[in-house]
Specification:
9 helices, 280 residues, alpha+beta, 10 strands, 5-stranded antiparallel β-sheet, Arc Repressor Mutant, subunit A, 20% strand, elongated
Length: 280
């Protein structure tokens, strides 16, 4: 008789911390005329496994090509969308995973190509899809365990580092996303509903976490950015106060003047006089 016996070590460095990464969703998609390619974000990580065709991913500031056997991991709060090549329709399976992030540059996104382990990962993904479609009792547990198997395969890739994302760090990223959006659009008429939809969180939760992070509300931060910009316009241009108020998106001159005095302690015209005389 021949046999093989192996000891399973408990100190394997690849083992993920328990009760952290959690499967939220799984979906399959292939390019069609109804493909929605608008930039969007999620409050959880997304893992895209390209199983066929070719396409590209568009982030806020860059775009890159993808093909079969590519993996793209998008961290929570990162603006992105998927695009397909019409001659080679892209097909992918995507996992939504909570409490997980990939070590990435400032883009919050990592692309990796599978040279080994791809077939095993895809088998797990298709089994997850089958479990969800059938909806048999216990399918949630099977999908969660299959996620853990997939993550272990990913940890074997030399260029991937996965970590657990704590709840406060996710809130911080959501607030950072909103803050950066305000920085880019502070002249526009932004609403709490619009900002909360951007971060995919409740608007009351947004106000609470944003105030905790930056000691101000999102709308107050927007006003402070407008006043900051107005200081530059008051000193470096000859625009009158009504023009500056209109440029910065204030609904009226009086609202601009009240906001400026509240934050700066003096009127806009007095600020212009003081700083122009100091510059001479």
């Amino acid at each position: 008789m021949s046999s093989q016996y192996y000891i399973i070590r408990e100190d394997d460095p690849h083992v993920m911390p328990q009760n952290q990464a959690k499967i939220l969703s799984i979906s399959w998609a292939q390019y069609s005329q109804e493909w929605n390619s608008s930039l969007h974000t999620h409050n959880h990580a997304e893992l895209f496994f390209v199983v066929g065709g070719q396409g590209s991913f568009q982030l806020q500031n860059r775009q890159f090509s993808v093909g079969s056997r590519d993996l793209v991991i998008i961290n929570s709060g990162v603006l992105h969308t998927e695009l397909s090549q019409s001659g080679s329709p892209m097909e992918y399976i995507v996992l939504g995973v909570d409490s997980l992030e990939v070590l990435a540059d400032t883009s919050g996104c990592v692309q990796s190509h599978f040279y080994t382990g791809w077939d095993e990962v895809v088998r797990c993904l298709r089994l997850m899809l089958q479990e969800v479609r059938n909806g048999q009792p216990g399918h949630q547990f099977i999908c969660q365990h299959l996620l853990e198997v997939i993550l272990l395969w990913l940890l074997r890739q030399d260029n991937l580092t996965l970590t657990a994302a704590a709840a406060d760090r996710r809130s911080s990223r959501e607030c950072d996303l909103v803050r950066r959006y305000i920085d880019d659009h502070f002249k526009e008429n932004l609403t709490l509903d619009q900002l909360a939809a951007l971060a995919h969180i409740n608007k009351y939760h947004l106000v609470h976490t944003f105030r905790k992070e930056y000691n101000t509300s999102p709308i107050s931060y927007q006003i402070s950015r407008r006043i900051q910009e107005s200081r530059m316009l008051l000193v470096s241009t000859d625009f009158n106060l009504s023009q500056i108020a209109q440029i910065l998106g204030f609904s009226s001159l009086s609202y601009f003047s009240q906001s400026f005095r509240r934050l700066e302690g003096i009127s806009p015209m007095e600020y212009r006089k003081r700083n122009r005389s100091a510059a001479r």
